[in-house]
Backbone:
């Protein structure tokens, strides 16, 4: 998502609704990432976007609705990145590499979007918790689909392996970022890939006719 400052718009100018919405979401993301949900105010977001509060409320009825729209967008971005990694190759080691890279790239983004999903101060709100759980399930099931087809494992076992892979990717990527990137990103991915592949390769691919 572009930064609000990158959408060069004068205050009060009329824009297509879709463009204005992107502008407001970009501004809101900057504010929420910097301040957290509870400390952020609609005034701050309107100011960052260079619009009046009435304009902001024309698009989003409240702060929660604005936050949920952002959460949906970023959850979808992560899910799509994982799915692209799975569909890009039939080589399972490359798939492991791709899934890990998707998570590391996501947390390494300059906009801090991962905080909206994994470090939100609104985690206990039902709407937020449901969305976070949904993206975790969606990414896990995408991996499980591939594991089940390739290994012949039943669904429960495929999902257990997939949860281990996606969970390790998320936790390791967040630790790597919080630790100030102690090793280069590609080296971090390769290291974790070597660890996980040793286990996953015990379930060799079956020929699918």
Residues:
């Amino acid at each position: 998502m572009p930064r609000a400052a990158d959408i060069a718009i004068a205050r009060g100018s009329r824009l297509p609704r879709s463009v204005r919405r992107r502008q407001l979401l970009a501004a809101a993301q900057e504010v929420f990432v910097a301040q957290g949900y509870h400390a952020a105010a609609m005034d701050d977001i309107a100011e960052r976007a260079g619009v009046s509060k009435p304009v902001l409320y024309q698009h989003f009825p409240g702060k929660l609705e604005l936050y949920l729209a952002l959460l949906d967008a970023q959850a979808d971005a992560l899910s799509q990145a994982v799915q692209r990694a799975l569909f890009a190759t039939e080589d399972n080691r490359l798939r492991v590499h791709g899934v890990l890279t998707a998570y590391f790239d996501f947390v390494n983004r300059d906009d801090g979007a991962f905080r909206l999903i994994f470090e939100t101060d609104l985690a206990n709100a039902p709407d937020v918790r449901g969305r976070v759980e949904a993206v975790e399930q969606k990414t896990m099931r995408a991996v499980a689909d591939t594991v089940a087809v390739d290994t012949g494992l039943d669904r429960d076992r495929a999902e257990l392996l997939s949860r281990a892979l996606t969970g390790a990717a998320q936790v390791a990527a967040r630790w790597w970022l919080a630790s100030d990137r102690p090793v280069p990103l590609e080296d971090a991915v390769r290291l974790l890939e070597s660890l996980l592949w040793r286990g996953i390769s015990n379930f060799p691919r079956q020929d699918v006719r």
